[in-house]
Amino acid sequence: MELLKRVFAYSRVYWKRLVIAALASIGVGAMDGAFAWMVEPLLKKIFAEQQLFILSLLPIGIIILFLFRGICRFLNDYFMKTAGQLAVQKIRNDVYEKSMGLSMGFFNKQSTGVLMSRILNDVNAMQDGIANIITGFFRDGFSALSLLGVIFFRNWQLALISFLVIPATVYPAQIIGKKIKRLSKQGQEKMGDISSVLQETFSGIKVVKAFALEDREVTRFTECNRQFYGFMKKSIKYDALTAPIMEGITAFGVAGVVWYGGYTVISGKMTSAEFFSFITAMALVYSPVRKLINSYNILQRSMGAAERVFEVIDQVPLIVDPPQPVSIGRAAGLVRYDNVSFAYDDEKVISGVTIDAKNGEIIALVGPSGGGKTTLVSLLTRFYDVTAGAILVDGIDIRNLAVKDLLRQIALVDQETILFNDTIANNIRYGNFNGTDEEVVAAATAAFAHEFICELPDGYETNIGDRGVRLSGGQRQRLCIARAILKDAPILILDEATSALDTESEQMVQGALNNLMKNRTTFVIAHRLSTIHHADKIVVLESGSVVQQGTHEELIATGGLYGKLHSMQFKS
Ligand SMILES: Nc1ncnc2c1ncn2[C@@H]1O[C@H](COP(=O)(O)OP(=O)(O)O)[C@@H](O)[C@H]1O
Ligand SMILES: [Mg+2]
Questions:
Q1: pLDDT of residue 466
Q2: What is the best residue among 340, 369, 375 to mutate for testing ligand 1's pocket, by most ligand atoms within 8 Å of CB?
Q3: Looking at the domain assignment, is residue 181 inside a domain?
Q4: DSSP E strands: which ranges in 481-562?
């Protein structure tokens, strides 16, 4: 019930459409009732009293009646379904917006494909439900009501007999509905898996091809599809069982009506014209009632999907703005890690790290892989929050800043060169959407990217294409650097920005990075120690703890882990 209320809360804003649709469904219902009602006078006047005038009016009456019913039906369908679509659109926007606001921790745990499936497939399943239910409940509801009116008016005793069986249908309908809901939820989960396989294999197509995994992936996909069919099969079975079970039960009612009705007609308590009007109404009421019961199944199915959608909407973001954020304009770039510890779930990966960075300083983080370097800088961008200690920017705890305000102070360049399916210029503008064309060119020039951009077919207006496949690794990296330059933030994070490159492009990217680092507090994580000799401070991390801290010369003089790492690279 709660779930249903939430779903309908989304439709309520479109109440004007719903009102028009409801009025139109009253029209449809009234016409159904009128038709059943007319059977009695027609039979009486035409067949019993043989009035030819009535017979000539009849076709016109029928045409008018169905014309009016048709118009009402159109209005009903159109306004109901558009209201349903609008509600679904809003839900889809909400899930997306909501999921965008969730923290990195959520995305680490959730497969992209499943999340996509929730936004696409589950919302679609909900949409089917909403559209069907509001149409069903209104139109079929009104038709049923008006036909019931005719039935009761014609002969209430007879009506009672025919409805004695209704309570008997409630219980099986509920059981079937519950089963359908559970099955459809499982089916939607499978759909999430299907979507996961798609997302993974299309985005990782290179690995699939290189390792000749096509067959394996096809098998995986086929298996997911097969399991999906398994749930659908059961769900279809229950759906298909609904009608025969209901019909079987109602047969008792019909049998009772025929027996008692025939008896009352023969004994003269009711005319045969009245009886036929009653039977017409009974026959007509059958279809809307069946649809209503069917709507119940569809409702259950869409509620299964709705649960999955609301699971995302109800996620509480872990990283939120403080109630009264301290506002800083542009930070000077003072960064202090104050006895910071952090754990992913239960696994402690950073313990008691203290680092002081003055504005404009270059802090290099080095150490064995898995030592916690990436994690440490992810705490500065608040991808995760520290579990103990604090990180301060310009002396302010970053948890006291609005997240947007904090992120304005930081530019991040890492190994993953994410480019969007847009023009080169716009990809650079992800750093600052207000950047003018001149600023974009200046950023690209400083990033040693201007030259190759000019050689592209449309220069800065060249569309990169999905995932930027037409660019080399070094070119992509320089675009990401240009993006960071355009952002012009006082704090810079470089996480292995050059590790994936060959020597030639590394030199060029290194030049770009040197331009970028000017006058910014920089945290640089570099695999090749030769690139960080000039750092103001080198922090050596091992298993999440700082084991050494100092300049290159100091650390070489003391030996230890840094000396060891350094001589290892020097030898090779
Ligand atoms: N999203 C995550 N969830 C759980 N553990 C993680 C996650 N990311 C990294 N880790 C773990 O944290 C430790 C530090 O990783 P990381 O910061 O990436 O190290 P580095 O960048 O120095 O190679 C590793 O043991 C790694 O397995
Ligand atoms: Mg790392």
A1: 52
A2: 375
A3: no
A4: 491-495, 521-525, 537-542, 545-550
